[in-house]
């Protein structure tokens, strides 16, 4: 008897996981939308007709082959395009197992193993962040936080907690038009504004505070902004600190911001979606000194730690605040007199049905251990440092812009423009014709990389100028890969000039 469709697709997926593309393979087999439609039309097609019939197994397996072939291979060591990379293989199979068991994390009744697993993992993360004492219970009934469907949602939850602490009646009566303000650096994530819109406080209530050349918030500017907002009667209620900005990986001074938050009685939320994983490394955890003084902290394990999308933990220093903020005591689900009801977590969050995101992290952590997680961070920083050294030693071919931790931001300089500084201050003073020439180069170079499938390197504007950004997330990236990607930038840059 032949294999079932499920077995055949699972075999395709497992083969990809255990033997992902390498440096000899393309990062992407680029095809246009029309070309992709044509390819899929030869199997099962992308679309669905008015009376869509069942397709045979061979056609579906052929379509899966196309899915794999024409997807971006984020596991490839020359995919340095986003602040995530290919997933840890143990994480992938953990995700599959969680999906196969198909339960919800809302109650102990429905997820006894996963409830305890979440509590254990959150407790460990809380101890690493300094939210939980080292001798605290490893599996507490009330863990220091919860899992969320992504960093933006976690920030929304954190700001709801912050508002509830200041004005708990809003939950019952609704907002009455009084303004409330929150503060984030002008390099911070747009989740602040999205959350303000959803909370009904309005995007105008998000006050963007000046950051320094590295992208870190200026504490004195923050204090002045809060003072001005308070004097205007606007009701400051929260500060969002950033530990690892998206572009330059800048880390705000958390101790300074905690002092300001305490001075004004504001909630301090730390966006550690990207840089929070520095806490795993004894060499680099100093970047988050002071995080233990914050009120909440979001941590995306699907970024630097290679968990499959999504795997986000929101830590809360006082988890007893969660239930008063979110609970509605639905008596069909959260009955206090049922067995082990004290372990139910669903009424401490906005979600009801909740995906089991903890299993993949639990398995991967048990497999790699603390030392393995630390080594992943240390290797990423080492690769970034190698890239910075190569850029500095390029005799003006590459110009460093800014960047910290695992982010390297730089530009490629045409021969007739060398030497040329691309510090943010110098970018602002570039002659218009030079700015226009350099600005157009990065998209052309990246497009050539995509067309050839040789690498994927991101670019973004710094002071309005497109510059390249290398983000080191993949533990399989080597110094040889770094050198090869920089060589590609130079080669394609030279081609773009001809």
Structure description:
This protein has 498 residues and is an alpha/beta fold. The protein folds into 2 domains: 104-355, 3-Layer(aba) Sandwich (Aspartate Aminotransferase, domain 2), CATH 3.40.640; 371-497, Aspartate Aminotransferase, domain 1. The protein is built from 15 helices and 12 strands. It has a 7-stranded mixed beta sheet with strand order 2-8-7-6-5-3-4, with helices on both faces. The chain has a 5-stranded mixed beta sheet with strand order 1-11-12-10-9. Strand 3 (181-185), helix 8 and strand 4 (206-209) form a beta-alpha-beta unit. The radius of gyration is 24 Å and the shape is globular. The N and C termini lie far apart (60 Å). The model has no long low-confidence stretch (mean pLDDT 94).
């Amino acid at each position: 008897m032949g294999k079932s469709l499920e077995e055949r697709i699972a075999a395709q997926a497992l083969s990809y996981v255990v033997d992902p593309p390498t440096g000899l393979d393309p990062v992407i087999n680029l095809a246009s939308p029309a070309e992709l439609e044509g390819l899929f039309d030869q199997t099962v097609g992308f679309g669905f007709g008015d009376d869509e019939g069942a397709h045979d197994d061979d056609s579906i397996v052929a379509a899966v082959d196309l899915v794999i072939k024409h997807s971006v291979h984020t596991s490839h060591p020359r995919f340095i395009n986003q602040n995530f990379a290919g997933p840890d293989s143990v994480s992938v199979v953990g995700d599959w197992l969680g999906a196969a068991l198909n339960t919800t994390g809302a109650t102990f009744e429905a997820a006894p193993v996963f409830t305890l697993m979440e509590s254990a993992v959150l407790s460990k993360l809380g101890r690493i962040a300094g939210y939980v004492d080292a001798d605290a219970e490893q599996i507490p009934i009330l863990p220091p936080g919860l899992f969320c469907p992504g960093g933006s949602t976690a920030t929304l939850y954190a700001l709801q907690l912050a508002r509830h602490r200041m004005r708990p009646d809003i939950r019952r009566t609704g907002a009455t038009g009084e303004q409330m303000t929150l503060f984030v650096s002008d390099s911070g994530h747009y989740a602040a504004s999205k959350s303000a819109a959803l909370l009904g406080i309005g995007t105008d209530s998000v006050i963007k505070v000046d950051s320094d050349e590295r992208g870190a918030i200026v504490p004195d500017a923050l204090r002045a902004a809060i003072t001005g907002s308070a004097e205007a009667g606007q009701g400051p209620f929260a500060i969002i600190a950033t530990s690892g900005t998206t572009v330059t990986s800048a880390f705000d001074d958390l101790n300074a911001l905690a002092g300001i938050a305490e001075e004004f009685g504001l909630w301090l939320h730390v966006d550690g979606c990207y840089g929070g994983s520095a806490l795993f490394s004894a060499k680099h955890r100093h970047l988050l000194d002071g995080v233990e003084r914050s009120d909440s902290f979001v941590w995306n394990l699907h970024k630097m730690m290679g968990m499959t999308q999504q795997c986000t933990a929101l830590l809360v220093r006082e988890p007893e605040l969660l239930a008063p903020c979110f609970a509605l005591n639905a008596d069909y689900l959260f009955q206090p007199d049922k067995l082990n009801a004290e372990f139910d977590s669903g009424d401490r969050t906005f979600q009801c049905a909740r995906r089991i995101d903890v299993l993949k992290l639990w398995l991967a952590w048990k497999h790699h251990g603390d030392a393995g997680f630390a080594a992943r961070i240390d290797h990423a920083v080492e690769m970034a440092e190698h890239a910075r050294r190569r850029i500095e030693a390029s005799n003006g071919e590459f110009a460093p812009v800014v960047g910290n931790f695992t982010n390297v931001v730089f530009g490629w300089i045409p021969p007739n423009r060398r030497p040329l500084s691309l510090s943010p201050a110098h970018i602002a003073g570039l002659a218009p014709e030079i700015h226009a020439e350099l600005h157009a180069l990065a998209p052309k170079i990246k497009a050539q990389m995509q067309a050839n499938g040789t690498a994927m390197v991101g670019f973004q504007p710094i002071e309005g100028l497109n510059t390249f950004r290398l983000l080191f997330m993949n533990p399989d990236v080597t110094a040889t890969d770094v050198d090869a990607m920089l060589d590609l930038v130079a080669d394609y840059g030279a081609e773009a000039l001809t």
